[in-house]
Amino acid sequence: MKNKFKFLGLLCMVFIAFSVVSFSCSKDTAPADKDFFVGTYTGTITYSSDGKNISDEDGKLTVVKVGSSYSFKFGSGIPDINNVKFEKSDDDTYVSVGSGVTGITISAHSLKMLVSNDDGTWTADCTR
């Protein structure tokens, strides 16, 4: 009889351990707890400054985390945007904050941008 209780106890412990692991690894992890928008997005990207216009309908835009801020690395000869901070908006969407870099909205699946400052104007309508 003791062996049956030991086996039942062990079985319960395995079930509890499995339950804890499966719930803690759930897809419900808040995106704010992860760098969920770091990665490469593709779509239409443009840049203009002092008569220079660059446009790529099949462009790539890579988001990189540097410390507590983010950098946007463009392809197609478009200058990068660096040192961008974000605040959570709603529905796991984040918006850029700070002088000269407002106009970026990003989520896990899309990136929209209209940034205009002394260095030029960048636009992006990308997904991943």
UniProtKB/TrEMBL annotation:
Swiss-Prot/TrEMBL keywords: Signal
Signal peptide: 1-24
Top-level division of the source organism's lineage: Bacteria
Protein name: Lipocalin-like domain-containing protein
Protein source organism: Arachidicoccus rhizosphaerae
